[in-house]
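Schema walk-through. Below, the input block comes first and the output block second. Nothing else is stored per chain. Lengths vary across the set, and this one has 65 residues.
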Amino acid sequence: MKGETSGNTQQLLRVDLDCDRDALRFTVRQAGAGFCHLHRRSCWESQFDLADLERTLADEWPDPS
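--- output ---
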């Protein structure tokens, strides 16, 4: 269970669907040092762009051809 030993927990406040119902947005209240294993509030850096996403996807899913 997330936060069981660290005390870094999240309380789910609400879940919303987007207009075409294919994505979810979770609103949470965080407690403790942070959610990320690096003790940050988020696992995402504050500066993130599409090139970062493209590199991540390329690393995770090799070219099928």
